[in-house]
Structure formats: C-alpha cells, structure tokens
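JOB MANIFEST
job_type = single_chain_structure
chain_count = 1
residues = 137
[input]
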Amino acid sequence: MQAFKVWTEQRVVMAVVRGGWNERTARDYAEAFQQAAAPLSGADWAHLVYLDDWVLGVPEIEPVIRDLVAWCQQRRLRYVAHVYSPNMVKQYQLERMISTQNGGFEKRVYADEPAAFAWLAARGFSTNSQRFILQSA
C-alpha cells in the first residue's frame, strides 16, 4: 500500500496519506505535491487531504512539510481542508508543521468528508468527486 496518493481535480490538490512517515517519504510527498500543484500556480487554489490512515511521522519530516507549506503560500494556496477523526497527537504534529500565522490561506479540520468537500465548494473550489473512497491510495 502506498504511503500517499496526490492528484488534482479542478483547482484542488487532493491527497490521501497513510502509515508512519520518515523523512524520505515526506520528501517524496513534497515532490509529488509540487508536481500536482505547479500547473495551478498563478491563480488561487485549494488543498484537500484525507489523514485518517496517517500514523504520524518522525520529527525529521517537520521541516520538509514546513518548506512545502511555504512553497504553497508563495503560489496562492488559499484554502486547506484536513479530514481525520479527532486525534490530539495527530493534531499536535500537524499544527507544528502547518502554520497559518503567516497568512495566505485558511485551514479547517473536518471529521467527515462531505463537510470538507462542501466547505471548499462554498468557497468556489468544487471537485469532480465528493468522497476520497473513489481515489484511495
């Protein structure tokens, strides 16, 4: 089973992530994400990621993901929706890596997929699919 799958629908970079991550996995993800998002650069875009099956990562992934967040901010990322069941440890690591304090984008966390898809659609970022099950990693 793959550690991640990244694809684009309309102006939304979609991702499903799984398992425990090391630095190599984080670098591979950042590269795949940048390839998927590069064509969207120049206009506003969004990101929707399913994290229920992600088991966290070693501390070395954090600077890799922080660099990816900075890359996204420089390329007009406006909205981010995370989908995962409430998990304080997962939330803690994600908040250490993904700061919205520098502005540029708004991030929301949802426990269910339909709410996340609806939130992005209400902001003008619809997708072809409405569930991650159709694009499992």
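[summary]
Residues 105 and 114 are 21 Å apart (CA to CA).
The chain is about 35% helix and 25% strand.
exit_status = 0
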